[in-house]
Design brief:
It contains 18 helices and 15 strands. By secondary structure, the protein is an alpha/beta fold. It has a domain of 188 residues: 3-Layer(aba) Sandwich (Rossmann fold). A 6-stranded antiparallel beta sheet has the order 2-1-4-5-6-7. Strands 8-12-13-3-14-15 form a 6-stranded mixed beta sheet. Strands 9-10-11 form a 3-stranded antiparallel beta sheet. Strand 12, helix 15 and strand 13 form a beta-alpha-beta unit. Helix 9 runs antiparallel to helix 10. The longest helix is centred in the middle third of the chain and has 47 residues. It is elongated and about 140 Å long.
Length: 560
């Protein structure tokens, strides 16, 4: 829902703020008052190309800002998140047009590009009339309208689920159906990788253990000299540490009977002697165990070199190399059982395709029935809208490839397009080829009135009253009111019969201020509505009878 539209320095608009309400919003005013300028401003919010000519004279830039209720704009939240834009309670779009050509787009306060604006705009507002924003003229959307009208969405969702499974199977099958030579070459390469890793006989943590062993082997002489001399100094040599500490201990024990304070030191020395004996014993054994094996050092170097080469090819750690072998073996298994898997997938694909064909036939049959009913209802609506004898057709054709085979898609095999002939004797043409803005607006109004399942929350009707009057205008007003129960509707009209149905009525006018023309918009209250309808009914001279007629029109509209 469009909550607010702010326009500054755009065409003859100085500074304008409009708050729109739910339901049917009607804009009226004299010809040239500026109603079309408001629509042009909305078009810029939808992503239309801007021109410096649109900027108010003597101003450097124009600003158009719209605030919409995000909850009513389905799919917008996902679109914003995907684009990295903030998703707030309200969607705020700001467009700045500069004479320098440096135009800017802001969505929820963040810079955005025109393509993003156009994508968002196409989902929130449709303008019907001589404009470009006419989603119902896009034939690819006709199938959604027909399926929504015929309550076929549950069946289509079931079809889409099976189609998704079918597409996944087909993709996997396509990946497997490589040419034989390529498979053989790949199998040879994978075999080489698997065998190379297996031949290495790697063990987890082996490289770290080898590095430690290499360090010991490379420094065997230093280790032997240090441990052996350590043993001698502590124990074996004349005047060894243990011998001298023992002499000290014996003397202290001998004199300790004279002073008990020596006992703690004696105990410390006894402990030290015990620990030194253990250390000396360890160094003796350690020095005897040291091996001087140049050949073993060479073996360790070679082993580490092998491991490092494998790391460069398959992973930075032994665990990564072993994991790579598992992946290679799995791929080998897929190739070895290639034909079996192809057969299995072909059977699954055929089964899914059979289900899809059955469902697509059901969809097609139901679409044909829905199309007949839609044709009847639309033609009735168009007759009420003073387009009598108009022929409306829903043409359903099968999507086929160059060989004549059906092309399955997530919506079935059908291609749906609406055709229409507004005039007797003319062949029906695609809806997108309709030239008259007035006719197009009424056709769209009829479709919206019947389907009311559109995804677009805001509908703007411009020139919906072109070429009609009297009773037809009243029917158009009533139908706009009905459509506004499911959409927010903005309608620009010159007919009081339509304006009388407004939930909110705005008057667009222009006046001269300070030597410049300025357009303004005012929301009309009860008495003001009577006055505006009277103007629309009676022109320059408004009589009491005209006012009575206006009041009667408002009262009749309220009863609908």
């Amino acid at each position: 829902m469009l909550l607010e539209l702010n326009i500054k320095d755009f065409a003859i608009i100085d500074n304008l703020q409009i708050s729109f309400g739910k339901g049917l919003n009607i804009l009226t005013g004299e010809t040239g008052a500026g109603k079309s300028i408001i629509v042009d401003a909305v078009k810029l919010i939808l992503g239309d190309r801007a021109s410096a000519d649109d900027i108010r004279s003597s101003k450097d830039e124009a600003v158009i800002e719209a605030m919409l209720d995000s909850a009513s704009c389905k799919g917008i939240a996902t679109l914003l998140e995907t684009a990295g834009l903030q998703n707030d309670e309200n969607l705020v779009i700001r467009r700045i047009i500069s004479r320098s050509g440096k135009n800017k787009v802001f969505i929820n306060g963040s810079m955005a590009n025109l393509a993003m604006l156009q994508d968002i705009g196409s989902r929130i507002i449709d303008i019907y009339g001589q404009h470009e924003h006419q989603s119902l003229t896009r034939s690819e959307e006709h199938i959604d309208i027909l399926d929504g009208f015929g309550n076929l969405m549950p069946l289509r969702q079931e079809f889409a689920g099976i189609y998704k499974e079918y597409a996944l199977i087909k993709s996997e099958l396509d990946n497997l159906t490589l040419d034989s030579q390529r498979l053989v070459e790949k199998q040879d390469f994978l075999n080489f990788q698997s065998n190379e890793i297996e031949a290495a006989g790697l063990k987890a943590g082996e490289d770290e253990e080898l590095k430690k062993e290499k360090e010991i082997l490379a420094n065997a002489e230093k280790l032997f000299e240090a441990s052996n001399s350590g043993h001698d100094i502590l124990y074996a040599a004349s005047g060894a540490v243990l011998e001298r500490v023992g002499h000290v201990l014996n003397k202290l024990k001998d004199v300790s009977r004279f002073d008990q304070r020596l006992k703690p030191t004696i105990e410390t020395l006894e402990t030290a002697i015990s620990q030194l004996e253990d250390a000396a014993s360890f160094l003796r054994d350690y020095s005897q165990d040291i091996s001087f094996e140049p050949r073993r050092l060479e073996e360790v170097d070679n082993r580490l070199d092998t491991i490092n080469k494998l790391k460069k090819k398959y992973g930075q750690t032994i665990d990564a190399i072993l994991q790579k072998k598992e992946e290679v073996d799995r791929e080998l298994d897929n190739i070895i059982h290639h034909d079996e898997k192809i057969t299995e997938l072909q059977e699954k694909l055929e089964s899914a395709k059979e289900n899809l064909i059955k469902l697509s036939k059901r969809l097609s049959e139901k679409r044909i029935d829905a199309a007949k009913l839609l044709k009847k209802k639309i033609e009735t609506e168009l007759s009420d809208l003073n387009m009598k004898k108009t022929v409306f057709e829903v043409r359903i054709e099968k999507n086929k490839d160059i060989n004549g085979d059906f092309i399955l898609g997530e919506k079935g095999v059908d291609r749906v397009e609406f055709f229409i002939s507004p005039n007797i004797g003319e062949e029906p043409k695609p809806l997108s080829k309709i030239a008259s803005g007035g006719e197009l607006s009424r056709i769209m109004l009829a479709i919206k009135r019947i389907t009311t399942t559109g995804k677009i929350p805001v509908l703007i009707f411009d020139e919906v009253d072109a070429g009609i009057g009297g009773g037809t205008a009243e029917v158009v007003g009533r139908k706009l009111k009905e459509v506004s129960k499911n959409h927010q509707v903005l309608c620009i009209t010159h007919l009081p019969q339509i304006a009388a149905y407004a939930d909110t009525h705005y008057s667009v006018s222009k006046e001269v201020r300070g030597g410049r023309t300025v357009a303004g918009v005012k929301e009309l209250k009860a008495d003001e509505r009577v006055a505006e309808l009277s103007r629309m009914l009676g022109g320059v001279k408004i009589t009491d009878k005209t006012k009575e007629h206006a009041i009667e029109m408002l009262e009749n509209a309220r009863k609908e």
